[in-house]
Design goal:
With 349 residues, the chain is mainly alpha-helical. 48% of the residues lie in helices and 10% in strands. A hairpin with a 5-residue loop joins strand 7 and strand 8. The chain is elongated and about 115 Å long.
Length: 349
């Protein structure tokens, strides 16, 4: 039995489809070629910085990149984004471009969010308002929104913080943030760091001492505001704990600094009369919450206080303190150092 092959006869209809398919393939190959064809940023330009704002459309982004000299063609860039399926996945942030580029490299950078980060240091003892100012200056975040969230009790509960404000829980540390990071993101990063530092072992130890996490952070913030020397932190913590046990007023100056509008500065007698639950010269016990963000040294000082019987202290004017067990000793120390305090440029502690 012989097999016979019938030759395929191309009709004009088939030929048209074949030519059309060929044209489409050629166009696709050309576009893909332009997706990967490299070009070099001119040496006189060197590095190109571009900030893509939140809410910018793909067209907005392509126009910005074209205007900045990052890409050669908006249409080819957008086609490449569509071809790669990343049109709606380009991330906001500050980007740096240099050297040899192509549409694929640019799209890949924007898709991955390979943005420039800024290093931000939050000093120990910073209040939420100061933190907001630092973040606004370095990251351009909305400082008003930041402070509003910090003092939003419902937002605090949503962050699983058992307090009416996040003051004190924004852990002071050095962070790296993306430009235009949202207030929510910065807060969550700092709260996450707080939880890393305040581990379960410390929570357990605080409970053994009869203190809640909030009470520890509140007292630690006072210690942070008082102590200039690390060697004195556990002594100062013990002093305040001794006063609490004896139902004595704490008379802690950092709580007054927290409620005056033009602080920190040297305190005046009229400042001590301000009617506020944070005024520990008037109201007994701890204030309602922290007055700044304490670091781990002050937190550990409260959880592991020194074993001393001190009830009073007075600043020496050089950052150190003179500690006393009795009022008589305290008055003697105060008289001894009054001249130093008057001449000191530091605000009253």
């Amino acid at each position: 039995m012989k097999l016979r092959f019938k030759p395929t006869i191309l009709t004009s209809h088939h030929l048209r489809y074949a030519i059309l398919a060929l044209i489409v393939c050629v166009i696709a190959v050309l576009y893909v070629f332009h997706l990967f064809i490299p070009w070099t940023v001119p040496k006189e330009i060197g590095i190109i910085e571009v900030t893509i704002q939140r809410g910018m459309t793909p067209s907005d982004i392509s126009a910005l990149l074209k205007e900045s000299g990052v890409i050669r063609s908006e249409k080819k860039f957008l086609f490449g984004a569509k071809l790669l399926g990343v049109t709606r996945k380009l991330q906001a942030g500050r980007y740096v471009f240099q050297g040899r580029l192509n549409n694929y490299a640019v799209l890949s950078k924007l898709f991955k969010g390979d943005v420039v980060t800024e290093q931000v240091t939050i000093p120990e003892g910073s209040r939420a308002t100061k933190i907001a100012g630092i973040l606004n200056e370095t990251l351009n975040i909305d400082s008003v929104r930041f402070v509003s969230l910090v003092h939003d009790s419902s937002y605090c509960r949503a962050q699983d913080i058992d307090a009416s404000t996040l003051e004190g829980y924004l852990y002071p540390d050095t962070y790296r943030f993306h430009m235009n990071t949202s207030p929510e993101e910065t807060i969550q990063r700092m709260l996450s760091r707080f939880r890393e530092v305040f581990q379960d072992s410390l929570i357990q130890r605080a409970g053994q001492n009869g203190m809640t996490v909030h009470q520890v952070i509140t007292l630690a913030s006072i210690v942070e505001g008082e102590a200039a020397l690390d060697s004195e932190r556990s002594i100062i913590a013990a002093l305040y704990l001794n006063r609490l046990k004896r139902n004595m007023l704490l008379q802690a100056d950092p709580t007054i600094q927290y409620i005056i509008k033009d602080g920190p500065r040297r305190l005046l007698n009229r400042d001590l009369q301000i009617d506020s639950p944070y005024n520990t010269y008037i109201y007994p016990g701890l204030p309602p919450g922290p007055v700044n963000s304490p670091g781990i040294a002050s937190i550990l000082a409260v959880i592991y206080p020194d074993t001393v019987n001190y009830l009073y202290m007075v600043a020496n004017g050089d950052g150190s303190h003179a500690f006393s067990r009795t009022m008589r000793e305290h008055l003697q120390a105060k008289a001894r150092f009054d001249r130093v305090r008057r001449n000191s440029t530091r605000y009253r502690r």
